[in-house]
Amino acid sequence: MSAKTLIIVPTLNEARHIGPLLDALLVEAEALDARIVVADGSSSDGTPGIVAGKAATAPRIALIHNPRRIQSAAINLAVASFGAGMDYLIRIDAHGSYPGDYCRTLVAEAEERGVGSVVVPMTTEGHAAFQRAVATAQNSPIGTGGSAHRTGKAAGPVDHGHHALMRVAAFRAVGGYDESFRFNEDAELDYRLRQAGNVIWLTDRTGMIYCPRDTMAGLFRQYFGYGGGRAANIIKHRMRPRLRQMAPLAILPVVLLAGLSIWHWAFLVPLALWGIGCIALGVHAARKYYPQYGMPMWLSPLVGWAAMIMHFAWSSGFWLHVLQRPFRREAV
User: Of 167, 133, 117, which is closest to residue 299 (Cα–Cα)?
Assistant: First the structure.
């Protein structure tokens, strides 16, 4: 393949994963004649040392410091430093798992389709009981609302997907990632790419596996950030949210409404219906996807509980961002 490719790996405390990941990516880089750039956000667990050791014997690997720490800044910095003359950039998450020909398949798809971006299906896999419950929820409509890149729908143009490959020219033309977004930066960039006339193509020729949060607190923080990021995206671009995005907005009001139950039990009804619905759909998801995602049936109600955390956190993050906006000082 003649296309010049930049493989970018943002890292922050990824010492457990970065060594084997770089070994696998070097095989791809040799086949593609690609450069691998690790943009590290001040890791404290030895990640930079591991990368530096690999780079000492593999000139294709470069290590740069990402002072802003966040992933969007890492990609922007890597493209600014090494993007000259490159045709494609491939974004790799250090804690994900990928097929051995992942990068080569992405480049082949981009060359064949002539699109601005190729996104991939993302399957979530857990290990401990709660992780498996989260994975089952995230791989089913109860946790994703039917996102194309989460539910394994057929290949084709999409509004948004898990970022994998982008044409460097298209990325630069729209200004790269908006670094004011700590969450939902990929969907925000996808909007600008589509507005500029680029096609975002969901491939069915490859995909990645993601390991979810393993604690309830971690899951809440993640989805709280997602909700705030979605609100920022909608406000910035004056977008109309889709139905699957609007439905969770009711959850925080429903929970707050339950506080009025001290005056009448009827205020608890919406909360009860939501809870019962989530548990029922969670059990259904566990039955449908077991044993694909390894969720023991006796733990199936935990899928609904994980979904409830996701819904409530997303709704809370969204509404807090909206309510704080009048008091937020705009960046100059």
Answer: 133
